[in-house]
Amino acid sequence: MPTPPLNIALFGSKFMGKAHSNAWLQAGHFFDLPRRPALHTIAARDADYLERFAKQWGWAGWTTDWRTAISDPVVDLVDIGTPNHLHREQALAALEAGLAVACEKPLAGTIDDAREMRDAARRTGVPTFVWFNYRRAPALALAHQLVAEGRLGRIYHVRAAYLQGWGGPDTPLGWRFQKSRAGSGALGDLMAHTIDLARFVTGDEIAEVTGAIEERFIKQRTRPDDPTKKGRSSVDDAVLFLARFRGGAVGSFESTRLATGIKNSNRIEIHGEQGAVRFNFERMNELEFFDGNEPPRTQGWRTIQAMHEAHPYAANWWPDGHWLGYEHTFANQAADIVVALSGADPIVPIPDFEDAFTTQRVMEAAVQSARHRTSVKLSEVT
Ligand SMILES: NC(=O)c1ccc[n+]([C@@H]2O[C@H](COP(=O)([O-])OP(=O)(O)OC[C@H]3O[C@@H](n4cnc5c(N)ncnc54)[C@H](O)[C@@H]3O)[C@@H](O)[C@H]2O)c1
């Protein structure tokens, strides 16, 4: 008997709606998967747009009521690409129905929501995944492998920043600037990725957050529903903190949506006793590597173009040297999710709700450190 397809219901049809629709389609085309991902139902709010979206992307059905997708007995996996305040309700409903869940980051807008999601995943035992997609840029997956192989030795420094520049005073008051819907600003939007990457590449955990600063530079923004009026922006525009890792490394973290002139610079630099790596998403196919064990005469930074079939995920795409883009990180994750659901190991680990809750605890430690101007041990954030 042929293996049945993996029927997906996706919630959200805009930025991540497109990224995920493309990912499920491309995963089925470019990876040899144990089950074929099938675009079963797309759910969002605007019926006219949804009908067109479903046709354009090949979704078999669409609905403005996401609950109907959860009660459909043929759906296998719920994929959540909606604003952060909706993650909890949608994930809990899916988990209670026994459906696997792939949820966008941050796990939730608040730590309380995130904890409830983590607890529900534990209680139901249903597989969960969180779209920390940058892990699956081949160059970053390679960095993770090099550290795991001991090529950097003991880690001393982690220097990480996620910088974007689109959030100036002319940017309207969308959901990303409303605490009730986003939970936080640059913290959940960008820093969540940075924390996940630092944990992923080092294989270590943050033990303490200190010296955090949150800043809301722009307090009023134009209301999208009535451009003649302004409303209160209630989230951080920028967040910075220092950290200590369990293994002894120290780290600095910075995220902002006000880095004028910078589009999408997700950077990490790690120095170890025997070597170092650095990555910037603006040149996402390259990993810079310094091997301290090479003879001094030829020692130096090398730029590895991580597109050879020897590099993680690259063999599934184009011949060596043909660049991958943002969308491939999602397709790689979609493929890994299908593989993990079949019981096999993904190419690199996928964060589940338990793992993403650890990232959320670091975010919460940063909030508390900024609010109380103090150091916060992760063991105090539960
Ligand atoms: N992994 C990444 O690189 C990445 C990038 C961008 C956004 N995200 C995350 O993805 C999520 C969505 O962000 P986005 O940029 O796609 O937002 P968006 O504003 O572009 O799209 C939100 C979608 O949610 C739908 N929606 C809103 N309320 C709904 C409801 N009550 N029921 C059903 N659908 C509803 C909207 O109709 C829209 O289709 C957020 O959690 C965000 O943090 C992740």
Report on this structure.
The chain has 382 residues and is α/β, with parallel strands linked by helices. It folds into 2 domains: 6-133, NAD(P)-binding Rossmann-like Domain (Rossmann fold); 135-323 and 352-372, Dihydrodipicolinate Reductase, domain 2 (2-Layer Sandwich), CATH 3.30.360. Helix content is 32%, strand content 26%. The strands form 3 sheets. The protein has a 9-stranded mixed beta sheet with strand order 16-15-14-13-7-12-11-8-17. A 6-stranded parallel beta sheet has the order 3-2-1-4-5-6, with helices on both faces. Helix 4 (87-96) links the parallel strand 4 and strand 5. Nicotinamide-adenine-dinucleotide (NAD) binds at residues 11-17, 43-45, 66, 81-84, 86, 104-105, 131, 133, 189.
CA-based gyration radius: 21 Å
Strand order in space, largest sheet: 16-15-14-13-7-12-11-8-17
Overall pLDDT, averaged? 98
Q: Give the total of domains.
A: 2
Q: Tell me, briefly, the overall form.
A: globular
Q: Which fold does the CATH topology of the largest domain refer to?
A: Dihydrodipicolinate Reductase, domain 2
Number of distinct helices: 10
End-to-end separation: 47 Å
Please outline what is shown here.
It is built from 10 helices and 17 strands.
